[in-house]
Design brief:
Its main location: membrane. It comes from Candidatus Kaiserbacteria bacterium RIFCSPHIGHO2_02_FULL_54_22. Helix 2 runs antiparallel to helix 7 and helix 6 (128-140) runs antiparallel to helix 7. This protein is extended. Strands 2-1-3 form a three-stranded antiparallel β-sheet. It has helices at residues 24-33, 62-77, 82-92, 96-110, 115-120, 128-140, 143-200, 206-239, 243-255, 259-280, 285-295, 299-313, 318-323, 330-342, 345-400, and strands spanning 2-8, 14-20, 37-43. It is mainly alpha-helical and 401 residues long.
């Protein structure tokens, strides 16, 4: 969003201008870092509803950060100064929210802050992993390589996650259609047909009585059932916000047949990829384990990595620390041991990450191949059973007349 401001500089002179920022608070903070005392700040223009920058639509995606990292790496290789890089990118980035963040990062750098510290002020866009990688690049003097590493890593993560999410869109659509059709049948079609059967006075088969009973329940108590489902969903969402709740829900996620195995491979791929990328970039082993724990995305594996970190600090080797946990497969323990003995742990884990990446891709393809025909058959069976339960008695009634 664009804000106009009136401020006083360090020399006591009045200054007027505009600044791009995602919120008024961020705009004030950016101006204060320029040693300006803000007296008035407001929207540069009154926007209509159609022109409002809705956060959901202007959010910073993983793809935006990948492109940004590539651009930063290219500019560093061209020996453009750090401040100039962020000033150039702030004016070129199409995503307004990211442009405002990069502009704020540029202001921090101009004020003497290192890049990693400036990026750390925006944790929703730049994770701990990203910040620590940049800090390693600052310490080693290899920022262009680090940003290329980051772009490659984020690209791999984006490919795996997008493939998984896109593959599940069709099954979710089919499941949604299935429940929608069943709800319409039970609340609108079945009650009208069942009324004919009841009025006929003939004996109603047991399977038809069951269908009519379910239909009556949804007609009379469907609203209450919906409220209970919404309340249950809200409870699960709140539970997922607590440490114990996350551990329980993430454990359940891993225990689901086949799907749990898919998630397990996804998390193992993420652990190996994070760990290898950080080690190859010069981040210390302990820091790499601790940061990987924060970005793995599963409370169970986060707890495992926290224990591994404590064991390594106590003098244990990484492979021995990993071997104590059944959630870590033998192949990862064995390859980690080989990496430690050969001094090529980063490269070994990179190979392991590629292996698990392929496993995730194959598992997703197999899962989708199974779900599609199963859901179509279930949809047909569900509708068929409902219709048969009421049409067969009507057919018998017509035959008796």
């Amino acid at each position: 969003m664009l804000f106009k401001y009136h401020a006083i500089d360090a020399d006591g002179h009045e200054r007027d201008g505009t600044i791009e920022a995602p919120s008024q608070e961020v705009a004030v903070s950016a101006l204060q870092r320029r040693n300006l005392i803000v007296s008035v700040i407001d929207f540069a223009e009154k926007k209509s509803l159609l022109k409002l920058d809705i956060p959901f639509f202007s959010r910073v995606s993983n793809k935006d950060v990948v492109i940004l990292s590539r651009q930063i790496a290219t500019l560093f290789e061209a020996q453009v100064s750090t401040l100039r890089i962020f000033r150039l990118l702030a004016g070129e980035i199409e995503n307004k929210q990211l442009a405002a963040i990069i502009s704020s990062v540029g202001d921090d750098i101009q004020g003497g802050s290192p890049i990693s510290k400036a990026l750390a002020r925006h944790p929703k866009v730049f994770s701990d992993f990203y910040v620590h990688m940049v800090r390693a690049g600052e310490e080693s003097g290899k920022l262009s390589e680090i940003f290329n590493y980051l772009a490659d890593y984020l690209d791999r993560s984006y490919d795996i996650m997008s493939k998984t999410e896109n593959a599940l869109i069709y099954p979710i659509f089919v499941i949604t259609v299935f429940f929608a059709v069943m709800a319409l049948m039970l609340t609108m079609v079945i009650p009208k047909i069942s009324a004919i059967l009841v009025d006929s006075g003939q004996a109603i088969p047991i399977y038809t009585k069951i269908v009519i009973g379910v239909s009556n329940f949804f007609v009379n108590y469907g609203v209450f059932a919906l409220i209970v489902l919404i309340a249950l969903g809200f409870y699960v969402w709140k539970l997922g916000k607590t440490k114990h709740g996350r551990l329980v829900l993430d454990g359940l996620k891993l225990s689901v047949p086949y799907v749990g195995d898919l998630y397990r491979k996804l998390y193992l791929s993420r652990i190996a990829d994070n760990f290898s990328t950080m080690l190859l970039s010069g981040v210390s082993v302990i820091a790499a384990i601790d940061i990987t724990a924060t970005v793995v995305g599963n409370a169970e594996y986060e707890a495992i990595l926290a224990e591994v970190s404590a064991d390594v600090k106590g003098g244990s080797s990484i492979s021995d620390a990993l071997a104590r946990h059944p959630g870590i497969p033998g192949i990862m323990v064995a390859m980690t041991k080989v990496g430690e003995e050969s001094g090529e742990l980063g490269k070994i884990l990179s190979t392991l990450a590629k292996f698990y990446g392929r496993e995730v891709s194959n598992a997703v393809d197999t899962l989708v191949g199974l779900i599609e025909p199963i859901m179509i058959v279930l949809l047909g069976l569900g509708v068929g059973i409902l219709l048969a339960a009421v049409l067969i008695p009507i057919y018998n009634l017509a035959g008796a007349i």
